[in-house]
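Sequence, please.
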């Protein structure tokens, strides 16, 4: 498998992403990768006690943040679009535990000019599916993207908007 690290610093704006940005001291700092051959985005992670929802479990909201980030990167890396999560369905099938290795993967299920349907899974080190999710992502137009980043969308970033 050949995977390329996804890096928000390549865009013409500061992301400060809670999930993936190394520069965010209060964030998760989880690196995401694009596997073009498999048609997916993924991240391997193991979370410490600071992200607890119960004494041994990762907080469900933190798990959702990882899933949402994976699906957002999928829209960027796989369909070359900036989008926001419009609707999310999730099924927690097995607990995600603190201090254990996991992988989140996301794919594009369907797309058109305005919407991208994504799917994601969180798996443990044995390959057991712990969480599944699907989302409808709304593709940003130029004005929405400019408002989201707080500045004009310029240069190569313009290809990511409708």
């Amino acid at each position: 498998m050949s995977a390329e690290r996804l890096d928000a610093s390549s865009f013409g704006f500061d992301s400060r992403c809670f999930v993936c940005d190394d520069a965010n001291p209060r964030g998760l700092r989880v690196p995401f990768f694009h596997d073009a051959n498999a048609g997916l985005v993924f991240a391997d992670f193991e979370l410490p006690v600071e992200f607890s929802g119960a004494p041994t479990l990762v907080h469900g909201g933190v798990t959702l943040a990882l899933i949402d980030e994976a699906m957002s990167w999928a829209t960027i890396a796989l369909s070359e679009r900036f989008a926001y999560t419009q609707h999310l369905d999730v099924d927690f099938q097995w607990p995600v535990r603190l201090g254990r290795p996991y992988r989140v993967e996301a794919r594009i299920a369907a797309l058109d000019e305005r919407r991208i349907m994504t799917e994601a899974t969180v798996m443990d080190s044995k390959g057991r599916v712990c969480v599944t999710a699907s989302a409808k992502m709304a593709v940003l137009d130029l004005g929405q993207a400019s408002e989201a980043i707080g500045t004009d969308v310029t240069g190569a970033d313009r290809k990511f908007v409708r």
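Helices lie at 60-79, 142-149.
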